[in-house]
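Got a spare moment? Tell me how you read both lines of this record:
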Amino acid sequence: MKLEKEIWSSPEFQKLAKDRFVMLKADFPRRKANKLSDEQAAQNAKLAEMYNEQGFFPLVVVLNSSGKVLGKMGYEKLSPKSYYNKLISFDPSL
């Protein structure tokens, strides 16, 4: 929730990432009130199996256009620009 509130939804991050990243958020709600459809839960479980074997949340995975993992990180108390800079550091061509 902090990652969403402090980084992803900030106008600064959105402007920086707009032309460089395709963002996909996979949610894994714990509360029954926020339960996902069975289909969505299965898709998210498959993503977690592929990219998050340790079950670390939140997890940000940076992939290239071929699906190769370039880097992973979690929430860090950074400014939106600093967080963006860490993400692009995984691939200098970004």
